[in-house]
Amino acid sequence: MIHNKVYHSQTLQASTGNLIIEGPVPALTLENCEFHEDLKAFRPAHQQHQAIIEISTLPEARVIIARHEHTIVGYVTYLYPDPLERWSESNMDNLVELGAIEVIPEFRGCHVGQNMLQVSMMDDYMEDYVIITTEYYWHWDLKGTGLNVWEYRKIMEKMMNAGGLIWMATDDPEICSHPANCLMVRIGKRVNQQSIEMFDRIRFQNRFMY
């Protein structure tokens, strides 16, 4: 599969300053931007900066950023699922995972996440993909936001809905391990029935739940 990508951008007016939401951005752009020190949900900021640079070089990958002047204050990544996860078992070349999304605390509440997802989906080539995200409550910043798991889950769902991702059932053990965890999916308009059926077989591997 040829992974075509078309750059889009928009300006988001926030109370703490205007942001440029843009992408997919190449590695060179990411290298030339500062990476905010508060982007540390997954690993220390300098390591995460290097991680998204490396992700951006993968053929299928996309990195969308929120940029305040020359500083990255938010990002979202899309790439093939981890080889150790069930979502990679079928080797579908048109299934990508929204692997990470993060926004610094200063800009939370400004709909930065929603806008990054909307810019992601401006690219018509996204209609060629099944896009998934696996949400686990232990990745959520409950302490920093002061929200409980259900309040955070509601906000997360609303944000994902802005990008066209909706909740879908699965029998994946890790997702089923807590009721707040969930699988969210966007099936592009040009995804064929064969791919949809293949994806359904990945979602449900216990035939009694299919």
Automatic annotation (TrEMBL):
<keyword id="KW-0808">Transferase</keyword>
<dbReference type="GO" id="GO:0016746">
    <property type="term" value="F:acyltransferase activity"/>
</dbReference>
<dbReference type="InterPro" id="IPR000182">
    <property type="entry name" value="GNAT_dom"/>
</dbReference>
<protein>
    <submittedName>
        <fullName>GNAT family N-acetyltransferase</fullName>
        <ecNumber>2.3.1.-</ecNumber>
    </submittedName>
</protein>
<feature type="domain" description="N-acetyltransferase">
    <location>
        <begin position="38"/>
        <end position="118"/>
    </location>
</feature>
<dbReference type="InterPro" id="IPR024699">
    <property type="entry name" value="AcuA"/>
</dbReference>
<dbReference type="Pfam" id="PF00583">
    <property type="entry name" value="Acetyltransf_1"/>
</dbReference>
<keyword id="KW-0012">Acyltransferase</keyword>
<dbReference type="InterPro" id="IPR016181">
    <property type="entry name" value="Acyl_CoA_acyltransferase"/>
</dbReference>
